[in-house]
Amino acid sequence: MKKKTLTPLLAPVLAALIAGCTTVGPDHQRPAFDLPADYRAADGWKPATPADHLPRGEWWRAYGDPVLDDLIARTDRANQTLKAALGTYRQARAAAAQARAGFLPEVGLSATAQRSRSAAIQGRSANQSNTTQLGLDASWEADLWGRIGRQVEAAGGDLDASAADLASVRLSLHAELVQNYFQLRVTDTQRALYARTVAAYEKALELARNRIAAGVATRGDEASALAQLRAAQAQAVDLELTRSQLANAIAVLVGEPASSFALPPADALAGVPAVPVGLPSELLERRPDIAAAERRVAAANARIGVAQAAWFPSLTLNASTGYAGNAFAQWFSASNLVWSFGLSAAQAVWDGGRRDAQIEAARAAHEVTVADYRQTVLIALQEVEDNLTALRLLDDEAALRAQALAAARDAEALALNRYRAGTASYTEVITAQTTALDNERTLMQLRGRQFSASALLNKAVGGGWDGRLSP
After folding, report:
1. Which of 190, 350, 368, 389 has its CA 20 to 30 A from that of 299?
2. Element (H, E) at 425
3. In degrees rounded to 5, what are phi and psi of residue 321?
């Protein structure tokens, strides 16, 4: 008898499920963007194609500095910004799992035990009774219009975007560390330069004093030499401050207190890795910020379908079974078995335009993400162009600065020799020494700019260009 009663109820449900579900809302398409045929700053580039799945190598190893390699590893282990990004990713992963759970039924177990007493009425004695019940309840919403599917799609897009954000944070931290590290190493070379300069100026001061003692120079030469020496010593002190601040910045990146962090000085400076000719443009598509922006477009697109699904009725299947009786011992007898099965459908008839407003808001949010995606691509193109140009022009400038430094050193040597011979004033010596020092320090600072441009170019193309390196 029960089977006959249940069959008419199941028939329309099974028919609806067999017919398949309809997914409302637009399907995601990557926003169109016309990339240039090549980059002005380099030959051999080709139009970019989506390739954010390509591996990102350990690009910093190209600098050949084991101290830097160790600092990168420490950053990956202990940087607090990276840990916060990892926590955000785990939240997105949990949200995606929560959305996927919407495809499955919800099942609950309940148990109750109750003792009650009725009042005595018209001479009847009070009655006491016990009631016990054990039940299993289940409900499942059929995703007839794809609302749950679109929610899962949106959560998946958010998860992918969060994963790309995590990669973007890691890449940015690595690039920042490389820049700070080599700025510190450039500062070390400048400190060594000023140590040599101070020693040379001390000898020049001694020379001036000896010439004064010999009666062939004036006190003005000594004053000029002393002023030049003190200025160089003051600049050396300023470099100590610069190095201390850079070391403190690196300490924060590696997740250590600045007071306990130490980085021994090094006078030698590694070379800047050369950019290979014909660097493939698809490396740009590995940029995690571009991937994150594109996946947020996909998530926003899916939310349009979620909003549109609100126009259609929801269908929920409910079922429950269990045992009920006056005592626990009677629970599992056939006569105490209870069950129920049913369908419920809900449909809003009028909501004052709320659903239309939600759909419009979802479409507007999608337009925002599309604009953000295109802006991210434009910024990426700019960064690649800027740093390719910087590396090329700084290399040309470095060659000219090296020639200027060689000429300034020759002029300095000639001025000192002429001063010793009494054919030049000490003002000429100071001018030549200042010119040589300025050229050498400028050349060192230029090396720092080259390292920064190199690190930023690695970041701009998504993390290096040598696919042979392990990610």
Report:
1. 350
2. none
3. -150, 160
pTM: 0.81
Q: Which of 109, 107, 127 is nearest to 119 (CA)?
A: 127
The DSSP 8-state label assigned to residue 20 in this structure reads -
Other residues' Cβ atoms within 10 Å of the Cβ of residue 65: 20
44: left (phi over 0), alpha (psi -120 to 50) or beta: left
DSSP designation for 119: P
pLDDT, tens digit, 9 for 90 and up, residues 55-71:
567 899 999 999 999 99
How far apart (Å, rounded) are the C-alpha atoms in residues 180 and 169?
16
Task: Kindly provide the b/e burial profile for residues 377-411, where b requires at least 16 CB atoms within 10 angstroms of the residue's own CB.
Answer: beebbebbbebbebbeebeebbeebeebbeebbeb
Tokens of 315: 């269908």
Sheet holding 128-142, edge to edge: 106-117, 128-142, 314-325, 337-346
Helix (H) or strand (E) holding 210: helix 147-213
In this structure, which CATH number among 3.40.1280.10, 3.30.1450.10, 3.40.47.10, 1.20.1600.10 belongs to the domain 25-105+145-312+356-460? 1.20.1600.10
Q: Tell me the CA distances in angstroms from 175 to 158, 324, 365, 456, one per residue in order.
A: 25, 68, 32, 6
Picking from 298, 27, 28, 360, the residue whose alpha carbon sits closest to that of residue 155 is: 298
Q: Tell me how many degrees the CA angle 322-325-328 measures, rounded to the nearest 5.
A: 90
pLDDT one-digit tens code per residue, 348-364: 888 788 888 988 999 99
Look up residue 302 and give its two tokens: 């899916």
Question: What are the strands, taking DSSP E only, across 82-124?
Answer: 106-117
